[in-house]
């Protein structure tokens, strides 16, 4: 396993749509292992998509406190309810925004062993899954927000600080 460099906002790769994984190879497993190492090396973070380490494939790793979860070619089958809460991103360090997402999701995904599994998630795990799956479509959490806040202080960023970040977004209203 190796820790990988995380690409940052401004890199056009973050806006690309990730490609499906057609065959799970030892290289795919190495990428998943490296992603987990990268995720765990940055304490306090919940998820990471392959695009964030420069690999445009539909791969996600996450740990919301119950152990590592890997998603390969995930598809959301169902969404219900709503929750609004803070989100941050390894690719946009130092800022958070409040995003409304489904409270419960049902996701179908492949495991690294090629099995299809269904995951039913709620609350933080549901939020994390949706956040990371957005990355697979080139969507960032800033695409949903009008205001950003400093991670450390929780204070609203001043327009001069927030504008360069918000200018790099695609406005999405769902």
TrEMBL record:
Gene Ontology BP terms: translation
Stored Pfam families: Pep_deformylase (PF01327)
UniProt keyword Secreted present: no
Gene3D superfamilies: Peptide deformylase
A GO molecular-function annotation: metal ion binding
Cofactor: binding details: Binds 1 Fe(2+) ion.
Catalytic site: 132
Cofactor entry: Fe(2+)
The keyword Metal-binding belongs to this UniProt entry's keyword annotation: yes
Binding site for Fe cation: 89, 131, 135
InterPro entries the record matches: Peptide_deformylase, Peptide_deformylase_sf
Keywords: Hydrolase, Iron, Metal-binding, Protein biosynthesis
Reactions catalysed according to its record: N-terminal N-formyl-L-methionyl-[peptide] + H2O = N-terminal L-methionyl-[peptide] + formate
EC number of the protein: 3.5.1.88
Matching HAMAP family: Pep_deformylase
Homology family: Belongs to the polypeptide deformylase family.
Purpose of the protein: Removes the formyl group from the N-terminal Met of newly synthesized proteins. Requires at least a dipeptide for an efficient rate of reaction. N-terminal L-methionine is a prerequisite for activity but the enzyme has broad specificity at other positions.
Name of the protein described by the UniProt record: Peptide deformylase
Record gene name: def
